[in-house]
Sequence to fold (104 residues):
Amino acid sequence: FNAQAFEKMKNDAIFINIGRGAVVDEEALVFALQNRQIAACGLDVLREEPIDMAHPLLSMDNAVIVPHIGSASVITRNRMIQLCVDNIRLVLNNQRAKTPVTVK
Fold:
């Protein structure tokens, strides 16, 4: 989401991101909120985590930020645990993990 995307939204829209923080231009989001191009935002993810305490979103009354808890449902957590178990089994059997981790 960039400045053009926020400009196309209605001024009573509430932008919610529970996906990936990197897909949002946070400077454009701050501008859109400050100038009431959109009404508010709710964010579970951010470009930089943890957020810098001086980040302008933290002082805005129309921004709600939660600590990356979008996956905190019982079903999702159970699926995450099963994926972890599956990966361990694969690796221990000299097979490629379903979700391999690349170290940079």
Remarks:
- The chain is about 35% helix and 10% strand.
